[in-house]
Amino acid sequence: MDRIRQLALASTVTTFLLVGIGGLVRATKSGLGCGDNWPHCPGQLTRAMIIEFSHRAVAGILVLLLGSLAVAAWRRREETTPSLLRPCLAAFGLVLFQALLGAIVVWLHLEAESVVLHLATAMALFALLILITARTHALSGRPPASEDGGVSRSATGAAAAVLVLLLVGSYVTGRDAGYVFGDWPLMSGSWIPDLHIELYVIHFFHRALAAAVGLIVFVVGVRIMRRKDLPLQSTLAHVAVGAYALEVLVGAANVWTRLNAGFVTLHLALGALIWGSLVGIAIVSRPLGVKAAEPRRHRSQPALETTGS
After folding, report:
1. In total, how many domains does the chain have?
2. Which residues, other chains included, contact 146 with Cβ-Cβ below 8 Å and sequence gap of 6+?
3. Hey, CA dihedral for 300, 305, 308, 309, is it positive or negative?
4. Contact of 155 with 278, CB cutoff 8 Å
5. Residues 6+ apart with CB under 8 A from 249
6. Are residues 127 and 239 in the same domain?
7. Reduced to 3 states, what is the DSSP secondary structure of residue 239?
8. Are residues 140 and 152 in the same domain?
9. Are both 128 and 58 inside the same structural domain?
10. Is residue 299 in a domain?
11. Do 27 and 42 have their domain in common?
């Protein structure tokens, strides 16, 4: 079980790293650094090629990690449960689908909708790996986190709101609407810009949505932080709320620095961190989540003892 847990953790970290590099690819406009070629990357060595190739290389490493995770879970299937085996197999299938989407994004020359779908799949994979990591933790016999259905539901709602914001932000970038205003928090000196211009509408919607989602994350996060009986969830809530506050400042810095690549990359990485923290709260707080992941032999033990008596 230790190997499965280590592979799950390594895959989770690698996925987060891959999202960050993907943000760098977008920020530096390196998505076509290899032209419209996939998976090979021919041509002259340039900065764009190096950045794009590094993204593909880390994606390849992730495929190997998740392939190894699926094989390890299958070999130990008698000691685990379908609640662990199925997500491991699903994660491998999802990363292959993600790789195919990456090819489609290149072939479509970074069409906004394809990029949004690519990010959505990455966030789904990240969440699935957090679930797998939590279940391997439970199967290792370590003390489980306290359960609370209300906390799980509220964190799920907040995570869903963050996901929508992430996808809208990706669409903003895909439509080159990230720098249609040179000021922040105002937009051309006004709280509400001219909504007859499409790019203005896209950018304005993203800012308005960010304010609404920020309120949701703050309210949900503070309620969880006050729960002294949920130490793990409280820690993750601190991460989510703190990262969101920093995210707002980085969003402003994106405008003030005319979309500096470092701030744009950090903006996406923080978004993924907020998403992952809220997903983690939802998963570890879900009632019966730990019992569902108990090894088969542990669940069958009481029946054996009864028979023996």
Report:
1. 2
2. 229, 230, 232, 233, 285
3. negative
4. yes
5. none
6. no
7. helix
8. no
9. yes
10. no
11. yes
* Cα separation, 78 vs 3, whole angstroms: 15
The residue type found at 284 is V
Sign of the torsion formed by the C-alpha atoms of 38, 41, 42 and 43? positive
DSSP annotation of 39: S
Quick check: is 295 in a domain? Answer: no
The residue segments making up the domain with residue 184 are 148-287
Query: Based on the domain organization, do 154 and 139 belong to the same domain?
Result: no
Which pTM value belongs to this model?
Answer: 0.88
Instruction: For residue 52, give both structure tokens.
Output: 């794009």
Q: Check: CB of residue 275 under 8 Å from CB of residue 155.
A: no
**Is the torsion defined by CA of 101, 105, 107, 108 positive or negative?**
positive
**How many angstroms separate the CA atoms of 204 and 206, rounded?**
5
On whether the CB atoms of residues 79 and 296 are closer than 8 A, the answer is yes
Same domain, residue pair 139 and 254: no
In a domain, 268, yes or no: yes
Q: One digit per residue, pLDDT tens: the chain, 309 residues?
A: 678 889 999 999 999 999 999 999 989 988 888 888 887 787 778 888 999 999 999 999 999 999 999 999 998 877 767 788 999 999 999 999 999 999 999 898 888 999 999 999 999 999 999 999 998 887 766 666 778 889 999 999 999 999 999 999 999 998 999 999 999 999 999 999 999 999 999 999 999 999 999 999 999 999 999 999 999 999 999 999 999 999 999 999 999 999 999 999 999 999 999 999 999 999 999 865 444 444 444 444 443 333 343
Q: Which residue has the tokens 């990591």?
A: 133
Collapsed DSSP state (helix, strand, coil) of residue 187: strand
Shared domain check, 161 and 49: no
Compute the distance between CA of residue 23 and CA of residue 59 in angstroms, rounded to an integer. Answer: 14
Per-residue tokens: 12: 């989770």
Same domain, 175 and 135: no
CA 288/CA 131 separation, integer angstroms: 14
SS3 assignment, position 174: helix
| Residue 259 φ/ψ region, left for φ over 0, alpha for ψ in the -120 to 50 degree band, beta for the rest | left
